[in-house]
Amino acid sequence: MRAIVVGELVVSIGGILPSLTIIANLRTTPRVPWMLLITALWLWLFWWYLQGRGWPQQTTDFRRRDLRGDSLPARVWGWALLAGALGIASTLALGFATLRVANVSREAFAAPVNFSSYPSLTVICAIACISATAGVVEEAGFRGFHAFTDSTPTWMDGGHSYHRIHVLSRPSFQSRLCDVCVSSIFSRDQRGAWVAGQV
Predict the structure, then answer these.
(1) What is the pLDDT of residues 152-162, one digit of tens each?
(2) Which of 132, 136, 133, 152 is nearest to 144 (CA)?
(3) pTM to 2 decimal places
């Protein structure tokens, strides 16, 4: 339970400032994408703190241990990037295939914000901010603090089971689609629920 609560706090707190920054930038000065600088600074401070630095000293070891943010060898990074690219390509392909086999509205693929009225540089910076925040904050919360420290396989532990349920409850179509793809390995019912339009 502690892992779930702390993980949720990490994700919630870490994503607040970048989200507000993007919204404020788009509403006030959309031609000057200052959101990128603020987001980069915030994510650096966020990771710096979770690595065990800063106050209070009593939680230093706990933060460093549960973040699980150790450096990876270059070989592991390379395989991880390849797996990520293949995962994104597979998700997009499955998304387009879903339109042909299920009754899914095309609006489900629409972005939550209409970027057509903003300059290209601002749109690129906004996407970069969203992607970087998701990569840093969600990985720290879900893959780090949500996970348990015992020897239980990660796909069976409570933190990751909760994570799968949590992502499925999000309104984002892509988040749901990604999670159904992963979860379908473990549950055929979720595959059926997706095709039936219940997810």
Answers:
(1) 444 444 444 44
(2) 136
(3) 0.65
